[in-house]
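Lab notebook, bench 4. Continuing the backlog of folding jobs that were queued last week. Each job is logged with the same field layout so the records can be merged later without manual cleanup. Today's entry covers Decaprenyl-phosphate phosphoribosyltransferase, a 326-residue chain. Filled in by technician R.K.

JOB TYPE: sequence-to-structure
TARGET: Decaprenyl-phosphate phosphoribosyltransferase
LENGTH: 326
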Amino acid sequence: MTDPGRMGEAERTAPQDPAAAAAGPAPALAPAPRPRSGRRAPALLRAARPRQWLKNLLVFAAPGTAGLLTDPGALAWSGAAFVLFCAASSGTYLLNDARDAERDRLHEHKRRRPVAAGEVSVRTAVAAGAVLVAAVPAAVLATGNWPLLAVLTGYLLLTGAYTLGLKNVTVVDLVAVAGCHVLRAVAGGAAIGAPLTSWFLIVVSLGALLVVTGKREAELRTPGGARTRDTLARYSLSYLAQVRTMASAAMIVTYCLWALETPTETAHRVVHGLSIVPFIAVVLRYHLLVDRGVGEEPEEIALRDRPLQLCAAALLALIALGVYWG
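JOB STATUS: finished
OUTPUT FIELD FOLLOWS
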């Protein structure tokens, strides 16, 4: 059990933003408020982290780059995989927040999560998370799509292992979270039998490692962040910056090789070659944002940073033109 005296000392010494100071004592210093029945449903929805469903759009990557999204059946299965991963990821988030509620109350931002703030009880979070985690494989099993079932089961097992212990193992925690992103992308191909090229897997894997490392770096910069995650105290900003640089450099080289060598027609090769420019711009913009300390919530960056959105839109447009043109 955390020593209240130490918590008070940490609160006095840790820097606070103006909003936190104006709000009064942090939730960590007082008992969690009892959930109000009228607010449970909206709070439970927020605890499911719908903003992070943005990550599940990766299921469309393999069918999209394979040129299969114009097929109604492939599009329907891709949409179904997206919904299933939204349910699965929300279930794992609820279970993770229930397990880490006490620690999250020590974090500058995580203490506002519904479970940590007491808007959703730990028991409710566990019950809702368990229902979602159990329902997703059952739904896929009913369809008989065994490849998708295998990938989803692997995702649930990996996230479960992360929640129970992998998050506390240095370096392994980076690989585990990046692996969850890769499984999202693999699920899109598994759902419709789309081929997964080595180019695709390498770029997705390195991109996932880049995003996860940037997230850890931003967490380490957050006051009091190391108290809420055991591995953060074992990392250094310089090490995480080196991993981020290595991952992005290897990813850019791999993407350039794919863009310049994969298409057979000259016109398609030109379009794919042009996509290198916004691809590099997206990577450079993300590095800049992480260096500014705003990479703790990657989905917030994607939803709010207009230059990044414009570069990503140009990249997707050129890839789609190169894949579907003619």
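OBSERVATION: The longest helix spans residues 72-99.
SIGNED: R.K.
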